Amino acid sequence: MTLDTTQLNRERVFFDAGQTLWLFGYGSLIWKAEFPFYERRPAHIEGWARRFWQGSHDHRGTPQAPGRVATLVESPDSVCQGMAYRIDADTLAPLDVREKNGYLREKVMLHFHDGSHAEGLIYLATEDNAAFLGDAPLDTMARQIATAHGPSGANRDYLLHLAEALENLGAQDEHVSALAARVRSIKET
């Protein structure tokens, strides 16, 4: 089951018209930024952990065989590393469509490597959205990711591209690393 959150996000305006804003990417937005931006900077957010608990019925899976993609879960002592983009507010319209399967815009504080910080947006899929899958044993999640395919390609590619992007950032994420290792050990179907 899916919920198109496009219209909901267009009502979640946390910025002034004409203003640029920061968008924090923690999943495919790290390595697949197919939108215009003024600036791109490594950043992190605090109190959140990246987890492959969101179902993908529209990009990396199908309604019959959903894939698993990244979302964030509250985790007080965690730091989630990713990429921040300074964008025009108009850029959010196509991103709302890209993130329509259960993700909502939320405000967060971004921390940059130079010690500065700024308020920004994330797209967050919480447990109350229709596509949320939640936790499962790592081997179960890895099998699902290794076999799911959707209009945007193989779910395994999403995970492995993310693992590589995090490695290139020098970011440690045990959840992503463990899943990637398990998926690499499963023969592609």
Strand content: 35-45%
Order of helices and strands: HEHEEHEEHEEHH
Main sheet, how many strands, which sense, barrel? 5 strands, mixed, barrel
Q: Which of globular, elongated, flat, extended, rod-shaped describes the shape?
A: globular
What would you report as the Rg, rounded to the nearest angstrom? 16 Å
- Total beta strand runs: 7
Structural class estimated from helices and strands: alpha+beta
The portion of residues assigned to helices is 25-40%
Question: Would you identify the regions where 5 or more consecutive residues have pLDDT less than 50?
Answer: none
How are the strands of the biggest sheet laid out side by side? 1-3-2-4-5
Q: Count the DSSP helices.
A: 6
Q: Determine the N-to-C terminus distance.
A: 24 Å
Average the pLDDT over all residues and give the rounded result. Answer: 90
Report on this model:
It is a single chain. With 189 residues, the chain is an alpha+beta fold. The protein has helices at residues 6-11, 28-31, 92-98, 138-147, 155-169, 174-184; strands at residues 20-25, 39-56, 67-88, 104-112, 117-124, 149-150, 153-154. Strands 1-3-2-4-5 form a 5-stranded mixed β-barrel. A hairpin with a 4-residue loop joins β4 (104-112) and β5. α4 packs across α6. The radius of gyration is 16 Å and the shape is globular.
